[in-house]
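This section describes the prediction task in plain terms. A model, or a person checking by hand, is given the sequence of a single protein chain and must write out its three-dimensional structure as a string of tokens. No templates, partner chains or ligands are provided. The sample shown here is typical of the held-out split.
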Amino acid sequence: MTLDQLFLWHREQHERFANLAENNKANLPQPYKASLKRTYEKQAKFHSQAVAQLNSLRQSRRDFPEELTDNLREALGWPNFRCGPVAYLMRAAGAQIEPKAEDEQAAVLHWFVKLVLKHGNDWWTVARDELAAMRERVDASEASGARSDA
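The expected answer:
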């Protein structure tokens, strides 16, 4: 079942139980009818909350394009020797990256792909800005460490 299918199912269930709670035509004594209505209302509330959470997920997801775009080609085309210095900086800034070329390349390319999917044509500008911010944090940390050693 896809996320969209699950969303639709919960939405249908919410509508169904809300309608049942509103239009309870059960031929039961009043105390039982009231209890049944509360059960329907609880079910409707549960499905309503599921719809809200699933809708949030649906809106935040990033679909991977079917075709290789120019931005993805550029990002995925980085060879491992070019990814190494970026991975080293990311590691120094706190990223958990194994010190193996293939792990460094995978981490950098994964980050690049996320940037491409989020920022499109501006992905490299954002990457450069984030790398500069990482460099500043690392330099500041090293400078404060050097002062405390003196």
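For orientation: Residues 3-60 form one domain.
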